[in-house]
Amino acid sequence: MRHLVTGRRLSRTAAHRKAMLRNLSQSLFEHGQVRTTLPKARELVRFVEPLITLARKNTLAARRLVISRLRDRLMADPNDSDRLMDDSVVQKLFKEIAPYYADRNGGYTRIIKTAEWRIGDAGDIAIVQLVGIAKVRQRPTRPAPESASAQ
User: What is the pTM of this model?
Assistant: First the structure.
């Protein structure tokens, strides 16, 4: 029986699972949304929500707790893929994300199930987004065909 045993193992060792959740959560804070499998998405939400609640306190102790749980990394520059920005993921969490959710009591993320499956094992693909912050990518539209009379 699994009494009082929480969380999914995700077919990984404890260290690998912890590192994977740290990387996914850092990518979520950096980009606003992440595509992953549905079980990973559900575990990611359980990992991320307490971090945002801690960041809302904006104290030194809270910052140290978030850094210890998340490990900090510099964010990639969106304009130049070879360069890093001056801000780190934890700085963005405390400066931008936590103040945005100051009046919200939980429910900072949403899971959107897609109609896609992973090729190798048909795993369900889901998108995890920060509510209100995620940039929704529009599908590229085709340019209107030019008529022959415009020449």
Answer: 0.84
